[in-house]
Amino acid sequence: MPINALNIRRARPVVIIAAFLLILLVSSGCYNTKTGEVKVGGAITFDLPVFPKTGSHAVQIFSEMHYSPAYRSQEVPRILPPEGSVPITGAEVKVLDIDKLKTLDGQVHSGSYDAVESARVYAVNCQVCHGQTLLGDGPITTLNSARGDGSKVYDGAIPVNLVSERVTSLSDGEIFGYITWGGRPGLAAAAREKESTAIMPQFGYLLTEEQRWHLVQYIRDQSR
Ligand code: HEC
Questions:
Q1: Measuring from atom 5 of ligand 1, which residue has the nearest CA?
Q2: What is the C-alpha to C-alpha distance for residues 223 and 47, in angstroms, rounded to an integer?
Q3: Is the residue at 80 inside a domain?
Q4: What's the 193 CA to ligand 1 centre distance in angstroms?
Q5: Are the beta carbons of 32 and 47 closer than 8 angstroms?
Q6: 124 and 21 in one domain?
Q7: Which residue has the least CA distance to atom 43 on ligand 1?
Q8: Is 91 inside a domain boundary?
Q9: Mind listing the pLDDT tens digit for each residue in 7-42?
Q10: 13 and 120 belong to one structural domain
Q11: Which of 200, 210, 211, 215 best tests ligand 1's pocket when mutated (most atoms within 8 Å of CB)?
Q12: What is the mean pLDDT of residues 56-78?
């Protein structure tokens, strides 16, 4: 059978259904003859060609292009760069894998390290929990509750002592990863694509990559 004949035979029911729907919509009064706007049950609106009231006219079959998949800018699902791509804009590639984090190092940013600036960044973002001397005894841990019964405001996980063996024995990349994702629980949650429930914020969203590497160096300096 010639291909054309096959197509026409297949297409015929579609044409009949489309024509039937068109007649139904036009006759049921939800077709605006002036603008071509068609409303179905208040939920669906689309445009048909405007048909002249008198005289003959060809029935136009619309091709339903709005059903074809199309991605607008910033629309989800976002198309992410392929694994291992090198960003030409310098945007950060966030690493979630702990083994990969261990191999990272902050050498690229060490040239711009400014101890005074990093102390300021630490004081603003970390001190409230980890304390002025990094011992994990920030004001949040000692604040008395307003109840006046000697209970504390804070009863969450103890902020880690950043100058203890626990942290000094970590690689730069690990410390960087924990700052980026909100400690070990934050990293674990992110690796499972879950929202973090950790006390510590995910500083990957709050500080630049450079600021976080500088904090690693700041923690190292304070540990000496
Ligand atoms: C709201 C309190 C809070 C703030 C603010 C905070 N942290 Fe934490 N941090 C914690 C807690 C609590 C932990 C222990 C992990 C947990 O259970 O969430 C932790 C864990 C860590 C760890 C992982 C240490 C380990 O060995 O597990 C590092 C590194 C760290 N914080 C560095 C920082 C730095 C640097 C900042 C500032 C940019 C910061 N934190 C801000 C509460 C905080």
A1: 126
A2: 69
A3: no
A4: 20
A5: no
A6: no
A7: 200
A8: no
A9: 556 667 777 877 776 666 666 657 777 777 877 777
A10: no
A11: 200
A12: 65
Domain end (from 67, 89, 108): 67
Q: Which residues are CB-contacts of 186 (< 8 A; sequence separation ≥ 6)?
A: 178, 196, 198, 200, 202
**Which of 79-83, 175-179, 183-187, 212-216 is least confident?**
79-83
- Look at residues 55, 25, 24 and name the one whose alpha carbon lies nearest to residue 38: 25
Q: Hey, whose CA ends up nearest to atom 8 of ligand 1? A: 200
* Amino acid in position 166: R
Q: Is 184 exposed, middle or buried (0-12, 13-18, 19+ CB in 10 A)?
A: middle
Note whether 223 and 133 are within 8 A (CB): no
Q: Which run of H or of E encompasses 18?
A: helix 3-27
Radius of gyration of the chain (CA): 31
Identity of the amino acid at 131: G
Q: What is the mean pLDDT of residues 214-220?
A: 97
- Mean residue pLDDT across the chain: 82
Tell me, using a 6 A CB cutoff, whether residue 101 lines ligand 1.
no
**Summary count for the chain: helices (H), strands (E):** 10, 2
Residue closest via CA to ligand 1's atom 37 equals 126
In terms of pTM, does the model score above 0.85?
A: no
